[in-house]
Amino acid sequence: MAEKGVLQRYLSVGEVARRCGIAVSAVHFYERKGLISSIRTDGNQRRFHRGVLRKLAIIKVAQKTGIPLSEIGDAFEKLPPNTVPTAKDWEKLSSQWRDDLNDRIEQLTRLRDQLGQCIGCGCLSISDCPLRNPYDELAGDGPGARLLEVEEE
Fold first, then answer.
1. 8 A C-beta contact, residue 109 and residue 101
2. Cα–Cα distance measured from residue 81 to residue 40, given in angstroms and rounded to the nearest whole number
3. Which tens digit of pLDDT belongs to each residue from 28-67?
4. How is 5-66 classified by DSSP, letter by letter?
5. Domain residue limits, the chain
6. pTM surpassing 0.70?
7. Could you tell me which CATH number the domain at 2-117 has?
């Protein structure tokens, strides 16, 4: 009977996908990226601890806010190994991402507000382009289109 209890703590890849509302291939993808892990049965089938459901929920929320998988992975590495993320863990993760999200919201707001000044020009290097080349910072790099992400100070 104890064995049955142990088996119930683990889910097949299909069960994980169904419970999280994602494709089986997404579960495999996140495992390949090292964001989640599984064990193998004697028959070499993947089994996931039920705690993976919480990690996948965190991944989905973080991705919806635009957090790259690499940053999600870095954050997961800071959590205690082989544990299910707690509400306190989520508080730490979300506070780390909140500042970045606020910065991106501010940047998108500026871009939205300045968009009418730059529809369709495509030059990316004229002196009065406040969106991609503020203060004509790229002029010293020569002519032609260049991509610039300006860090606000």
1. no
2. 18
3. 999 999 999 999 999 999 999 999 999 999 999 999 988 9
4. HHHHTEE-HHHHHHHHTS-HHHHHHHHHTTSS--EE-TT--EEEETTHHHHHHHHHHHHHTT
5. 2-117, 120-153
6. no
7. 1.10.1660.10
Instruction: Give the Cα separation of 79 and 57 in Å (integer).
Output: 15
Place of tokens 């970045």: 100
Phi, psi (deg, nearest 5) at residue 78? -80, -10
* Two tokens, residue 61: 């929320």
Contact (CB, 8 A) for 65 and 98? no
Q: Which helix (H) or strand (E) holds 109?
A: helix 87-114
Answer whether 58's CB lies under 8 Å from 94's CB.
Answer: no
Q: Residue 112 corresponds to which amino acid?
A: R
Cα–Cα distance, 29 to 40 (Å, whole number): 17
